[in-house]
Amino acid sequence: MFKKILIANRGEIALRIIRTCKEIGIKTVAVYSEADKDSLHVYFADEAVCIGPANSKLSYLKIPSIMSAAQITGAEAIHPGYGFLAENAEFSEICEEHKIKFIGPSPEMIRKMGDKAFAKETMRKVGVPVVPGSESIVTTIAEAKSIALQITYPVILKATAGGGGKGMRVVWNEDELGNAFQMASTEAGAAFGNSSLYLEKFLESPRHVEIQLVGDQFGNVYSYGERDCTVQRRHQKLIEESPSPIITPELRQKMSEAAVLGAKSVNYEGAGTIEFLVDKHLNFYFIEMNTRIQVEHPVTETVNNIDLIKQQILVAGGEKIENLPKGINGHSIEFRINAEDAENGFRPSPGKISYLHFPGGFGVRIDSHVYNDYTISPHYDSLIAKMIIWGTDREHAIRRARRAFEEIRIEGIKTTIPFHKKVLQNKYFLSGDYDTNSIEKLFS
């Protein structure tokens, strides 16, 4: 097992990884930008190295600086967390060349599954249901029009690289397609350095449900059940829960078997997520695979009594998966608390936190890197904290979440707390009657 791991990330996920490493007995190295010199991950790591200025391109995305930090500290492995370089095949490759273990899939795996068109074709070949659409990259507007005519409108254009809603456009008729194609392509090129697009049928009123997987170097791949990530704004998740309110035990088994089949077909290693859309008839369709740990992984940990970061590290160290699935226990909901003005279009709200109090008690977990007088930087993601609630069932978890939101206090900046409080009283959320486009009816 590794003696020292460098964490190539910041904020709550860096702190999350440090905690697991300490419990295993592994030394940690934090890297940080000048803007993050007062961050908790810097304080709690065994060593810390400044890798550049606030601009992430000159720090957290600058591979030579991170590799230098690993070499001068003697780190044997690098955990990329999520975001930044977590799904960067070049970074994984460079780690391999320098005999430093990248805690994640191989460069080849990241390239294959990071290309959505390739991933979709791979899943189709092994019998995993996929959304009807182009079999590969769509290169011209004329080609896009031809495919759209076959699968019927509405359709959606998606960037083949990247995520988070960038390079994505819904098209309702042929008149809109040309302009949407150009806009999506331009946006994808600017965001990911790859302007390639693919096209698929746009499913109306879908649920976003993903299956958490872990695979090891011995060919084993296990499913730890689903997460429902349907509460979204502009394709950005706000609330996640496990199990999904709409998934039956029979459907869970089918989706899990499909996800495991897809991952095994590419010899997947590490923690990963197969994402599906589920329509109102409970048909499910593969949309993409994330070859990393996800922001919402704690809900799966909570209902499975498993440390997914530990599983990642053990698998990377050549060990078999130690904690096999035993079935979901209870219900867990994660609320993303962001520095955003939820009542004014979710406008970013960076600044200093003048007062902070997090809730506690049984079944309440807080993953956060902030504290009193901490300054939320405008340079990075606006996530302040993740509040993860466990209950014996969904109703119990919702009651406990309401109690927790009565206790939480974050002053000095605007946050998404008012949004979450409204959702927890909303009849559509309580009944489970919503989809990925329901943000308006949930926030009312």
Question: What topology emerges from the helices and strands here?
Answer:
Blueprint: E1 4-7, H1 11-24, E2 27-33, H2 40-44, E3 47-52, H3 63-73, E4 77-79, H4 89-97, E5 101-102, H5 107-114, H6 116-125, H7 141-151, E6 155-159, E7 169-171, H8 174-192, E8 197-201, E9 207-215, E10 221-233, E11 236-242, H9 249-265, E12 270-278, E13 284-290, H10 297-304, H11 308-316, E14 331-338, E15 340-341, E16 347-348, E17 351-352, E18 355-357, E19 364-368, E20 375-376, E21 383-391, H12 394-407, E22 409-411, H13 417-423, H14 427-431, H15 439-442
Parallel strand pairs: 1-2, 1-4, 2-3, 4-5
Antiparallel strand pairs: 6-7, 6-8, 9-10, 9-12, 10-11, 11-14, 12-13, 14-21, 15-16, 17-20, 18-22, 19-21
Helix pairs in contact: 4-5, 7-8
Can you walk me through this structure?
- With 444 residues, this protein is α+β, with helices and mostly antiparallel strands.
- It has three domains: 4-103, Rossmann fold (3-Layer(aba) Sandwich); 132-201, 2-Layer Sandwich (Dna Ligase, domain 1), CATH 3.30.1490.20; 207-442, D-amino Acid Aminotransferase, Chain A, domain 1 (2-Layer Sandwich), CATH 3.30.470.20.
- 34% of the residues lie in helices and 26% in strands.
- It is built from 15 helices and 22 strands.
- An eight-stranded antiparallel β-sheet has the order 13-12-9-10-11-14-21-19, sandwiched between helices. Strands 3-2-1-4-5 form a five-stranded parallel β-sheet, sandwiched between helices. Strands 7-6-8 form a three-stranded antiparallel β-sheet, covered by helices on one side.
- The longest helix has 19 residues, at 174-192.
- The chain is globular, with a radius of gyration of 21 Å.
- 48% of the residues are buried.
